[in-house]
């Protein structure tokens, strides 16, 4: 449990705080940033949790803010850190951007949210859709809603009763993000798949949903034979609506969903994978006059699939000017503020290979060398495709009234935040030899 929750600016000044148990003096908030700076000076690794003079400090950083929780007891630190992340998510739902200005402009609503989301230091309602039913940003609605909705006190606190739709539908998206690092020799140094099952539910009443995946552990536990490929997921995290006891017993994902859009589960796979989209650049420098690039991109996935909105970011010297581009497909834009150019390909088919040339002028005083530390980075999205091979075996909707519902399933693979290739070579050692 937390005794005090505060939101601080980057100078350590408290913008707003709520004391729940009165056993931690508010002056401890002012000590937070000096303690952080002291640890940095002493080269002590900064962790989200530390203790000083019997006070436990638990914090996260978001944009230009610190979210801080203090406790004098032996609290569950992981639970409190998770609560702080949920607080950020709820504030984002309300204000779109959570930053110092939005905190200062919405003191009243934030105090109300802090009161509803935690009681005497114990986390309570953290589902933003339920909170928005009785904590609104329009003052006249506050007078109309006298009591909170029943969902707050029900066992199913994330869904209100009495929901009705003329057309009952469920949309399920399996989204996998690929993070990858490739060294200069073309070898994959690190790769991981971060997956998420996202849902949009427009269902009447209080239906129960059951989701079946090609889960390797489930097949082994039940003794059934897998039809096709099965996968072994790691670091599986569920929305609070999933019945964890049921999943632990027989790996069945059973739940009563929130209304609208939410993330049902997330997972990670550390299985080694090859780059879905390969790119390399050949650089030829003419000292004091110009620098030329030849970039090759290749789709290394199934031929029947297509990657959409492929963007290859290629670093250039900071003082390069007079850009000229020639591409076999797509468009190229110079981005001087980021010292790179971006080659955008709307559609790249599996197995396809494309080339482009870039020419830049250089001042006579420059060395003309591209910073070797900056790699190529790629963004893309491949619909109807999953790299891990995850498959939704079934999505059953159980409702006592017996209405019919339409489930829709879609698969998407996209680049993660860290899909980089250190495949920029000097023209003499490059494997790119075909001209445009």
TrEMBL record:
<dbReference type="GO" id="GO:0016192">
    <property type="term" value="P:vesicle-mediated transport"/>
</dbReference>
<feature type="domain" description="MHD">
    <location>
        <begin position="167"/>
        <end position="422"/>
    </location>
</feature>
<dbReference type="InterPro" id="IPR022775">
    <property type="entry name" value="AP_mu_sigma_su"/>
</dbReference>
<keyword id="KW-0472">Membrane</keyword>
<dbReference type="GO" id="GO:0030665">
    <property type="term" value="C:clathrin-coated vesicle membrane"/>
</dbReference>
<comment type="similarity">
    <text>Belongs to the adaptor complexes medium subunit family.</text>
</comment>
<dbReference type="InterPro" id="IPR001392">
    <property type="entry name" value="Clathrin_mu"/>
</dbReference>
<dbReference type="Pfam" id="PF00928">
    <property type="entry name" value="Adap_comp_sub"/>
</dbReference>
<keyword id="KW-0968">Cytoplasmic vesicle</keyword>
<dbReference type="InterPro" id="IPR018240">
    <property type="entry name" value="Clathrin_mu_CS"/>
</dbReference>
<keyword id="KW-0813">Transport</keyword>
<dbReference type="GO" id="GO:0030131">
    <property type="term" value="C:clathrin adaptor complex"/>
</dbReference>
<keyword id="KW-0653">Protein transport</keyword>
<dbReference type="GO" id="GO:0006886">
    <property type="term" value="P:intracellular protein transport"/>
</dbReference>
<dbReference type="InterPro" id="IPR011012">
    <property type="entry name" value="Longin-like_dom_sf"/>
</dbReference>
<dbReference type="InterPro" id="IPR036168">
    <property type="entry name" value="AP2_Mu_C_sf"/>
</dbReference>
<protein>
    <submittedName>
        <fullName>Clathrin adaptor, mu subunit</fullName>
    </submittedName>
</protein>
<dbReference type="Pfam" id="PF01217">
    <property type="entry name" value="Clat_adaptor_s"/>
</dbReference>
<dbReference type="InterPro" id="IPR050431">
    <property type="entry name" value="Adaptor_comp_med_subunit"/>
</dbReference>
<dbReference type="InterPro" id="IPR028565">
    <property type="entry name" value="MHD"/>
</dbReference>
